[in-house]
Amino acid sequence: MLQIKNLNVSYGSIHAVRNLSLEVQEGEAVALIGANGAGKTTTVNAISGTIPSKGSIIYQGKELNGLAAHKVVKEGIVMVPEGRRIFPKLSVVNNLIMGAYARKTSKKELQQEIEKIFVLFPRLAERRSQMAGTLSGGEQQMLAVGRAMMAKPKLLILDEPSMGLAPIVVKSIFSTINRIKQEGLTILLIEQNATMALSVADRGYVLENGEIRFHDTAKNLREQDVVKKAYLG
Amino acid sequence: MVLEALFNPYYVDIVVFLIIYILLGLGLNLITGYAGQVSLGHAAFFGIGAYSSAILSVKADLNPWLAITLAIVITFVISAILGLPSLRVREDFLAITTLGMGLIIQSFFKNSSITGGAYGIDSIPTPSLFGMKLENMSYLIFLLIVMLIGIYAVRRMTQSRIGRAWMVIREDDIVAQSMGINTTYYKVLVFAIGGAYAGAAGALFAHKVSFISSDSFGFAVSATLLSMVVIGGLGSIRGTLFGVSVLYLLPEFFRLFQFTFIDMNYLDMYKMMIYGLLMVLMMRYRPNGIFGKKGAKKVMTKRLHKKKAVKGGEHIA
Fold first, then answer.
1. Do A81 and B175 count as a contact with CB atoms less than 8 A apart?
2. Do B171 and A73 touch (CB under 8 A)?
3. Which of B164, B178, B314 to mutate to test the interface with A (most CBs of A within 10 A)?
């Protein structure tokens, strides 16, 4: 579904991502893990078109590199940005409505879709008219995922959904991600928390200093200590 | 003619200029209030509208109505171009950039031969309707209609898809992109539309005063407008109406009553002092403006539902 070949991204003289190649098959969940500064978020930003990059990003046979960010969304790749970035001054429901902006839908359909998101995240239903900025970190993450789901993605990219959250909240977020995956959605999961990420993903790529060090099935990665090495050097 | 006699032309003029400022404020509120792009160069759009209409009607001898319409179109296009920097710079930097552009354009007005240089342009014709020249009261009524149309259009725009896109760009423009919003298009569009409002105001101003020079489109106008919009409340039509009216009428009020403790010759300076003081007080006590979000109306309803709010707060932590 998504094939990245020889992706290179530089910030001035800093070469943040080097010759990265990665593949996501339809229906699978792929984890991209690595320590701080490994280039995970840079990779995601390159895919979503918010930063310029070199190399090819082929999605369903179509070249994405060079496409503007808002067009990538229309292709069906939707990102949950790092650090949630919900709209703090809008209510929960309005945040969700904004998620569906790229599609033109009737109010009635929107209402039904919002209810579906509320089934996925019952906590949000209780807070539907509350301003999103007053939600807890975990609830905001749920909202960020819900907002992305409103765009009806074919490929959902989650950038560090565990960031800054309590372990118990991380668990509940990941169980929801697992549920979304069971429903057949293709997921690219960017994580620092390797154990959590590999518990959900089918396959994993380990990123270190902007390069892919290993890739294997999640099961194998869990059993080997290559991941530990990538983190601790 | 009976109408003209009924009203003191001095008061009529005050209201005419007030409406012109309201049009300017509405445009700026779209750019800064709804789409969150700080602009300190709004007077430039005002000037472009005024000069375009003046040049077209005086030098090209066009009908004033045609000149006004064309002036709005011209400002729409030029504002879109001047809005391009907002794609690269934001917030404080955008404020400085727009400030600089405002000064450049004013200096163009002052030095170019097409704008009449320092002499400005005079004997700008008054538009007439059905053979009747629109002066004083009739011009006021015409402006009133324009203002109502302007307010209605802002209302419609901000409640539509376009308005929601602007609002989201204001909140977080990176996320706006990842929601599938073409931020480039909407940012340029808001400058174009906001500029067109200023262009309309400028053209109507030129045909009212019949003489324009670059002094009328300086930084003081941009700064005053921004204070008006901020004090009224960013992203609120009522706020703009209120902010512009209060700040515009306040100095006139002083002029009217001739207080002995102020020297009327320095009224303009006092005006800036009072604006400054008001801005400081606003930022301290009501940073969202009088009618901004959490403004007067919200605060009142909050007080009514205080119990509810406390109850809702329990779960947050």
1. yes
2. no
3. B178
Whole-number Å distance between alpha carbons of B15 and B253: 12
Q: What is the CATH number of the domain that holds B47?
A: 1.10.3470
| Residue B222 CB neighbours (<10 A) | 25
Interatomic CA distance for residues B296 and B301, integer angstroms: 9
For B104-107, the CB contacts below 8 A with 24+ separation are B105/B41, B105/B44, B105/B47, B105/B48, B105/B217, B106/B43, B106/B44, B106/B47, B106/B214, B106/B217, B106/B218, B106/B219, B107/B214
Give the number of domains in chain B. Answer: 1
Structural domains in chain A, CATH included, are 2-79+145-232 (3.40.50.300)
- The answer to whether the CB atoms of A78 and B178 lie below 8 A apart is yes
**Which residues does chain A have within 8 Å of residue B184's beta carbon, measured at their own beta carbons?**
68
Distance from CA of A85 to the nearest CA of B (A): 7
Q: What is the ipTM of this complex?
A: 0.79
Which strands form A29-34's sheet, in the order they lie side by side? A77-80, A155-159, A186-191, A29-34, A203-208, A211-217
Across the interface, of B167, B180, B293, the residue whose CB is closest to A102 is B180
Using an 8 Å CB-CB cutoff, list chain A residues near B177: 48-50, 68-70, 73
Contacts of A101 in chain B (CB under 8 A): 161, 164-165, 168, 179-181
CB atoms B179 and A151 under 8 Å: yes
Residue type, A3: Q
Q: How far apart are CA B19 and CA B76, in angstroms?
A: 20
Q: In what helix (H) or strand (E) does residue A213 lie, and over which residues does it extend?
A: strand A211-217
Segments forming the whole domain that contains residue B163? 2-313
Q: Do B179 and A130 touch (CB under 8 A)?
A: no
CB spacing of B174 vs A50 below 8 angstroms: yes
pLDDT of chain B, 317 residues: tens digit per residue: 555 556 788 888 899 999 999 999 999 999 999 999 999 999 999 999 999 999 999 988 899 999 999 999 999 999 999 999 888 887 789 999 999 999 999 999 999 988 888 899 988 888 888 877 888 788 999 999 999 999 999 999 998 889 989 988 998 888 888 888 999 999 999 999 999 999 999 999 999 999 999 999 999 899 999 989 988 888 889 999 999 999 898 888 777 776 677 677 777 777 778 888 888 888 888 877 888 764 444 444 455 444 444 444 444 43
Which site among A75, A87, A97, A135 would you substitute to test the B interface, given the most B Cβ atoms closer than 10 Å to its Cβ?
A87
